[in-house]
Amino acid sequence: MAQITLKNIAHSYMEDPSKEADYALKEVDHVWRDGEAYALLGPSGCGKTTLLNIVSGLLRPSHGRVLFDGQDVTDMPTAERNIAQVFQFPVVYDTMTVRENLAFPLKNRGVEAATITERVQRVASMIGMERELDRKARGLTADAKQKISLGRGMVRDDVNALLFDEPLTVIDPHMKWELRTQLKHLHGQFGHTMIYVTHDQTEALTFADHVVVMHDGRVVQIGTPEELFERPAHTFVGYFIGSPGMNLLPAEVQGDRAIIDGHEVPLGAGYGDMSGKVEIGIRPEFVRLSDDVGLPVTIDRVEDVGRHRLVRTTMQGRPINIIASEGGPVPSENARITFDPSRINIYADDWRVEGRAV
User: Which ranges in the chain are annotated with CATH 2.40.50.140?
Assistant: First the structure.
């Protein structure tokens, strides 16, 4: 296991980058602590895999250094970094049995036979392949082959880090949940440093201790699932985390009040003079419907999703989503909404502004 330090890392696929837009990965300067589980979360093309490949040694960064436990490994090949990496699509040895595939990393390192047998059996149980241990990999489905790849990454207990690049893409939904649970259990049991790349917020939030949210080649926030939900550092985080994401409304902020289309909204904190693009952010969970107070909205439709209802409204053409209780009343007309002041976030030019107590 290792503490991974990224010192001023940036990368461009161009030979002579001259401006920030030329970089697929903007500057990252961060320490990933030994033994913790991280998820790199963001949409396709945001730089997640680029960053992972820099950590693994498959890609040398254009700028900056990578350190494992203080040792500079920037120019060290992947084989010498002592990491295990599982890719998006399965990589297995078709001529080997499932058992031989799982045992291969251990045999290469001279692990004794009894230990190999025990670890292979344990991992096969975790990935649900005990009955296929003596089958050749050639005839297995892509789903089963990816489970072998996951198992081969998990069978070693001496690695500096386990790296996963969208490993559950080809796994069926039920098995995804089971494997995420098993990965979490493995991390708790052995304490490997784990980095897990995904575009799926459910995978990231249920797997990781800390989620690294990336947008347009930049790390915009690193935090716990609770921090990302309650205090998104950037409007993209508010939009990307949650289903549906955070409501964002242009506003004028005056001290502990916001003005939206001429209507006053109380805030849970005070703010100084603000310039640029100013918005308030409020999660649908913290918006309440009312008949007589608050901002006037038009109700477009109500979606019953089982445990609650999703009320889609608009205010001056801007969408506002509300999560309402299953049995609560929904006005048919002249609807108004209020916000929980303590749950409102304020953004200036897309970045969260910290308020002061009032």
Answer: 247-353
